[in-house]
Amino acid sequence: MPHTSLEFLGVRPEEEAFYRMLLRTGGAGLKELAEHCSSDEESMQSLQKRALELGLATLADGLLRPVAPAKAIEALIEHRVALAREELENSAAENDIVASLLAERNAAQASDSVAGTDRPTMERLEGIDRVRAAIDELTFFTRSESLTTWPSGLIPPQVVATSRPADERILRRGIRMRSLIGSAALDDPGTMAYLRELTAKGAEVRISRLPLERVLIFDRAAALTPIDPADSSRGALLAREPGLVATLVSLFERMWGQAHEPPPPSGGGGLEPADDRPGEIERRILESLCTADKDETGARDVGISVRTYRKYVASLMQQLGASNRFQAALLARERSWI
Q: Is the pTM of this model over 0.70?
């Protein structure tokens, strides 16, 4: 019966054959699989490892079982998309693509001003579109730190949708992200869900019951503040003047010091929800313990920083009473956590 190869999704022929065999047999132990395929145990171990890494199989009670085809293909597609995105982002950064395009724009702007004038230390950005374009540019070039405040305490769904790609791009690169938000967030489930999503991926979040000033600061070198704090749609002021930016950083640090961390979900005391079952991030991390051979791989698959990944792993091992990561994965399966 003809079938479509999975090579375009990064699956080698021998790995695809192994997965199809698992689908036919429903899974088995390593020795049984070796006998079924007339292969040696070492070859089976290699294929088993790849099947777990690719998300084609899961390990439960010492048995290797196939992942449902639709879920397996979805995982393969997500993995390929993540790799392609990372490759493209790295290539764009290494080749200074954005910088070369900005040079064209800046040259055009310079031609309309006094010859030899440097880029202004203060720019007035009229309208929300220009502000978003500036945020995209500043985010792309951020290398060490991103500081943000949300005085209203509410992040509407449409703002979450536009902010998520930039936030994830920053966190994927291991950049420190700190976000301050007004206390109204505590009464808004959508906002709290997004804040916890950011925290799970490595961001630092604090909630303030005191008034906040709206500001975005990038690498302590550039800052955005609203033209009209009561109407952000009017636009923003982009400051690169070192003295002014330093003052805004000091303001942020004072507000940060007066704020507190958000409460855990359902009032619990740890990483888990109150029903003693892991949340989505913890579940994905536990699954990665079965498939990823390195912390860097696991962190990339889950979409969080390596530092945050290791923090979660250590906490989950403690909760499960596991002495190593493999045991943690087995104990999690016994509890039906994954």
A: no
